[in-house]
């Protein structure tokens, strides 16, 4: 199997509609042992949703903006696994004010950048004590090279997120650890509901050569699983588009 014997940390499982949930499901089906993260009010929700996976998966507390959580992550992971082969970053948050580009205040913008961009470096660094050569860091982005309608400072955060992955690829490469992103088309996840006028993306498939279903998180999840596997041993600093081909068209 593609991930036979791999031990993976999967963040961002909130509902079974999330891309991260399907990464965890597919990873287990491909032979991986999976650990999930959650925190605060969503912790019990994640524990409940985890029961829908093919196999049991422990849930550990992790708020990527909490320095104590990050500092103790490796030790807490050690209660479940002796090492990590990969980690999925599926985390993003911006306060409502960050979705008004010209009027957003720094307090809201800084939160968006911290949770949605800097956290990729913070999470990777926290996992490093458990990772070795062959390890893979995979993150989910939404094409940061454009100024999308309604996305505003979350779009800026994604651009920073993508740059962060490239710098991680530079600094982790000598240790044999890869850093790559999957740029997914719009998916109607719980997180998407926090984006004002998300319905604007409903017609994405009309301009995608392969079409696109905003209700289907599986294509993006499959790409994440592939990047977490050993089948991309010399690929790092890459952004794999899984958007029906939308990014390549002139719209």
What does this entry show, briefly?
The chain is 33% helix and 16% strand. The chain has seven helices and seven strands; from the N terminus they run βαβαβααβαβαβαβ.
List keywords for this structure.
251 residues, alpha/beta, seven-stranded parallel sheet, 7 helices, globular
Note the run of SSEs as H and E.
EHEHEHHEHEHEHE
Task: Report how far the terminal alpha carbons are from each other.
Answer: 39 Å
Count of alpha and pi helical runs: 7
Uncertain segments: none
Q: Radius of gyration, Cα only, in angstroms?
A: 17 Å
Specify the biggest β-sheet: 7 strands, parallel
Strand order of the largest sheet: 3-2-1-4-5-6-7
Secondary-structure class: alpha/beta
Task: Compute the number of strand runs.
Answer: 7
Shape: globular
Mean pLDDT: 94
- The residue fraction in helices comes out at 25-40%
Residue share in β-strands: 15-25%
General description of the model:
The protein has helices spanning 19-29, 43-50, 67-71, 73-77, 106-127, 152-172, 218-228; strands at 7-10, 33-38, 59-61, 84-89, 131-141, 178-184, 239-242. It contains seven helices and seven strands. The termini are far apart. Helices cover 33% and strands 16% of the residues. The protein is an alpha/beta fold and 251 residues long. The mean pLDDT is 94. Helix 1 packs across helix 7 (218-228) and helix 5 packs parallel to helix 6. The chain is globular. The protein has a seven-stranded parallel sheet with strand order 3-2-1-4-5-6-7, with helices on both faces.
What is this structure's SSE topology?
Layout: E1 7-10, H1 19-29, E2 33-38, H2 43-50, E3 59-61, H3 67-71, H4 73-77, E4 84-89, H5 106-127, E5 131-141, H6 152-172, E6 178-184, H7 218-228, E7 239-242
Parallel strand pairs: 1-2, 1-4, 2-3, 4-5, 5-6, 6-7
């Amino acid at each position: 199997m593609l991930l036979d014997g791999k031990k993976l940390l999967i963040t961002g499982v909130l509902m079974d509609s999330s891309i991260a949930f399907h990464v965890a499901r597919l990873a287990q089906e491909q032979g991986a042992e999976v650990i999930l993260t959650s925190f605060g009010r969503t912790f019990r929700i994640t524990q409940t949703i985890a029961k829908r996976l093919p196999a049991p998966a422990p849930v550990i507390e992790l708020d990527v903006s909490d320095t104590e959580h990050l500092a103790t992550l490796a030790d807490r992971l050690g209660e479940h696994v002796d090492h990590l082969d990969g980690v999925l970053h599926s985390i993003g948050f911006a306060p409502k004010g960050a979705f008004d580009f010209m009027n957003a205040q720094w307090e809201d913008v800084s939160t968006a950048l911290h949770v949605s961009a800097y956290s990729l470096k913070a999470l990777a660094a926290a996992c490093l004590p458990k990772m070795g050569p062959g390890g893979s860091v995979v993150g989910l982005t939404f094409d940061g090279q454009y100024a999308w309608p309604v996305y505003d400072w979350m779009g800026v955060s994604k651009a920073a997120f993508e740059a962060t992955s490239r710098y991680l690829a530079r600094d982790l490469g000598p240790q044999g650890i890869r850093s790559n992103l999957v740029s997914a088309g719009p998916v109607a996840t719980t997180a998407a509901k926090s984006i004002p006028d998300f319905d604007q993306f409903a017609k994405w498939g009309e301009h995608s050569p392969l079409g696109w279903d905003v209700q289907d998180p599986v294509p993006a999840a499959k790409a994440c699983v592939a990047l977490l596997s050993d089948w991309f041993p010399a690929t790092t600093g890459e952004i794999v588009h899984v958007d029906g081909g939308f990014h390549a068209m002139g719209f």
